[in-house]
Automatic annotation (TrEMBL):
The keyword DNA-binding does not apply. Its main location: mitochondrion. It is found in: Mitochondrion. Residues 7-19 have a biased composition (Basic and acidic residues). The keyword Mitochondrion applies. Belongs to the ATP11 family. The lineage of its organism: Eukaryota, Metazoa, Chordata, Craniata, Vertebrata. InterPro entries: ATP11 (IPR010591). Residues 1-26 are annotated as: Disordered. This is ATP synthase mitochondrial F1 complex assembly factor 1. It comes from the Eukaryota. One of its GO terms (biological process) is mitochondrial proton-transporting ATP synthase complex assembly.
Length: 246
């Protein structure tokens, strides 16, 4: 009441502050600054990576997906939960493989880098050849190889990441696929068969892999189908995570 001019001046400034959007406030600047400094656990999908023929990521690294330094402080179980939760919302195949199981798969892959897999269809089976290239496993249909030879494009690639294998005892896996030829549960069936044939304790099952690589004239296509049906993997699978069945 004593200084009406001062009062009106203060009210005008107060109204100006209220009209300012959050982005222009000091609080907004602080939040934006913190967001820029904080790197999320998962990186932007394939940032800075190149794609090869067929749209698959070339030299797809774990760092292009996951902030490895950030998760090193977490336990193997926590990392597994983070990985599974992240990829469960995506239309892809993924897994967290125990180190011992991957050791067995990797050791056998060095001796037997390729194998023939059977994918159940509405009528019969379609055969796919899986070929290891480093820790990547590339799949293409047998008919592609028969018609295009070595230039046959990949239709599914499984990416295995052993960066946390020694320290955490796990190997992370995810995949890319050509959706024109495969859907998720079909890609999952192929991925599950890798563990079925390469991580098996049954000598008769792994012997099929050895025969295909080293004694191809003795290899019988129907033996793969028989193993697949016996394991139960021939049934339609729920899209998403690779099972631990081997």
């Amino acid at each position: 009441r004593s200084s009406p001019d001062v009062f009106e001046s203060r009210m005008e400034k107060r109204n100006e502050v209220k009209k300012q959007p959050v982005g222009h406030s000091k609080q907004g600047e602080f939040i934006r600054c913190m967001e820029e400094k904080a790197r999320p656990i998962f990186s932007a999908e394939d940032s800075g990576t190149k794609t090869s023929k067929g749209g698959f990521t070339k030299d797809k690294t774990l760092d292009s997906i996951l902030n490895v330094e950030m998760v090193k402080e977490k336990s193997a179980e926590e990392i597994k939960q983070i990985w599974n939760q992240y990829f469960s919302a995506k239309d892809t195949v993924y897994a967290v493989i125990p180190a011992e199981k991957f050791d067995l798969i990797w050791k056998r892959a060095q001796k037997c880098p390729s194998f023939l897999y059977a994918l159940p269809r509405k009528e019969g089976y379609e055969f796919f050849v899986g070929q290891w290239s480093g820790t990547e496993l590339h799949f293409t249909s047998l008919i592609n190889i028969q018609t295009q030879g070595e230039t046959a494009p990949s239709q599914l690639v499984l990416y295995h990441y052993p960066e946390l294998q020694k320290e955490k005892g796990i190997v992370l896996m995810t995949a890319e696929m050509d959706s024109k030829f495969l859907v998720v549960h079909e890609a999952q069936c192929l991925a599950n068969q890798v563990q079925l044939f390469y991580a098996t304790d049954r000598s008769q099952t792994y012997e099929l892999v050895e025969t295909f690589n080293h004694r191809s004239s003795e290899f019988k296509y129907m033996s793969v189908i028989a193993e697949l049906e016996q394991s139960g993997l021939g049934r339609e699978l729920r899209p998403g995570q690779v099972s631990d069945k081997s």
